[in-house]
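Q: Entry one of two.
A:
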Amino acid sequence: MITNFDLYRWKKAGMTNLGVNKLLKFFHRYDKKISLRQMGQVAQLKSIPNFIEQYKNQDVSKLREEYKIYPSFSLLDEIYPERLKEIYNPPVLLFYQGDIRLLKTPKLAFVGSRQASSQGIKAVQKIVTELNQNFTIVSGLAKGIDTASHLSAIKNKIPTIAVIGTGLDIFYPLENRKIQEYLAKNQLILSEY
């Protein structure tokens, strides 16, 4: 049986999300053990010898400690968002901080400019205020519209999820550190890194 830690090890050895997804489909279809070389072939890796070397040289106990720093879930888990599974090349593993139950709520995503106009920010505030807690707000944590959507959600006591493009231990942009820390404790932050 494939575990989330197995997926983590494959990724750390250089396998891409696309490669892992191909491998998961193979195992689902054939349910048999294969060698690392065969895994590389199924995943269509560019450098199978490099993958094998990286995999064999892993310090498994150190890697396991690193893996345990933040909780995670994968495509194999029931909590993984169904719509995210439908995109091309979905992330295999997602790490999180906060209330994972927010993934099961109705969601409304906000995207927009990092150099948001005052009119754009006011529009976000108005929309979020009028939602009246019927949706969980989802956005990145970049400057501009992303930040405005999260701040409006917090102000209106509406659940919010930040999907960030860095590791959970990195604050980017740095000016959003306090928002990120708040969301990690009281809402939800997701990252594939």
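Q: Entry two of two.
A:
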Amino acid sequence: MSAMFSDRLAAAILSKRSQVVVGLDPDYRLIPPELRASVDRPDSITPDEICDVYRDFLRGLLEGLVESVVAVKLQSAFFEALGWRGVRLFEETIKHAQQLGYLVIADAKRGDIGNTAEAYAEAHLDGARGGGAGADAMTVNPYFGTDGLEPFLRRTRNEGKGLFVLVKTSNPSSREVQDIQIAGGGHLYEAVGDLVALWGEGSRGRSGWSSVGAVVGGTHPDQAKALRRRLPHVPFLIPGYGAQGATAADLEGLFGRDRVGAVVNSARAILYAYRNTHLPWLEAARAEAEAMRHAVWEVSGRG
């Protein structure tokens, strides 16, 4: 059996002194102009040409950020929007990232029951053996409950995979559902957090952390800190840093004493950093990622 995902993540964090995850969310409109120059024709660009531009962009990022970034998170929707060509690029990018030493999170937010959930798990986690993408971890939706997550959970226990379950997401309207008061007191997101802790009991590694983590937005610092106290062994995947407004100061106290209890995602602020500087696009992305690494590592030592 492979090492527990939580142990691999902890080792990578300590090795690179980094909790930075870069979200690979390629948006053609924001890609550096020099990468689009040869194909940028109004209303006539083809999916193949878009994939070629994305491929060059993503390869440059992966090779340029490897010293500062511990994991990459591929948002599957940006690839699926290009049909089978995008799905192929999704899988190619996962393999290339892993070859460079990154841990890879498939941000697919899947959820269902029975053989459909099994198929989702195969598609994103199983790799060459099952013909799937072979990511190290993925995001999932808890709305179906335990039987909807069992195919994913089984892979955390037996195959060294990781999960990040949506608990308290970074978007403002998350409160419409996640902050609902439930019978007996408390909020829905707290009850989901308790389930995440229960689901992860069978996948806790030598690091003491579970391989079933929680997505907890950095844009809700008070709720995030309360969840950290409530879930002492659950690693957090924290979106909302950078473009969505969360800062390093908002993350204090979320990492555990060993600094490996959370990773922090940033996408647009790193990918498209060139838009706010005169630096070449990859140099700008590298500078932004390294600044984030320093800021987050420093705050992770305070709690």
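A: Comment on entry two: The chain has one domain: 5-300. Residues 170 and 217 are 4 Å apart (CA to CA).
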